[in-house]
Amino acid sequence: MDIGKTLWAIAEGYIPTGSFSETPEFVSHEALCVLNPGKTDAELEVTLYFGDRGPAGPYRLEVPAERVTHFRFNDMKDPEPVPRDTTFASVIRSNVPVVCQHTRLDSRDPHIAVMTTVPFH
Question: What is the mean pLDDT of the segment spanning 80-87?
Fold first, then answer.
């Protein structure tokens, strides 16, 4: 029995410009966490949707077989950088079943807020 789905949606996204620290682990970010429990590498396409403009993407990502990978939206540059201080949503399509999770680190304040949720499939 396969674990996961080939289509996921994250209805919420926002990367604040500010962070209390520039240390990589404390920079404000959104992340797409992907588990590929299968025997075949996962090829992902991520499309971003905005409230005030057309979609961006697809951003092409890969997760090796039987691995987990965290992708920071902050680091996605091709086909264009993900804008800061802008709300967005994402749709993830995969060639094989995967499990996705969304996390946010908002470190504009030194008390740090972390949020996580499982996207819709």
Answer: 90
Q: Which two tokens stand for residue 91?
A: 């749709």
- Architecture of the structural domain at 5-117: Sandwich (2.60)
- In this predicted structure, the answer to whether residue 66 has a pLDDT above a threshold of 70 is yes
How many secondary structure helices (H) and strands (E) does the chain include? 0, 7
Q: Which residue, 66, 76, 78, is CA-closest to 13?
A: 76
In this structure, what token pair is assigned to residue 59? 């951003």
Q: In this structure, what token pair is assigned to residue 16?
A: 């604040």
Which residue type occupies 7?
A: L
| Residue extents of the structural domains in the chain | 5-117
* Mean local confidence (pLDDT), 62-83: 94
Q: What is the dihedral of CA 58, 91, 116, 80, to 10 degrees?
A: 20
Q: pLDDT tens-digit profile of 35-64?
A: 999 999 999 999 999 999 999 999 999 999
Residue 87 CA to its chain's centroid (Å): 13
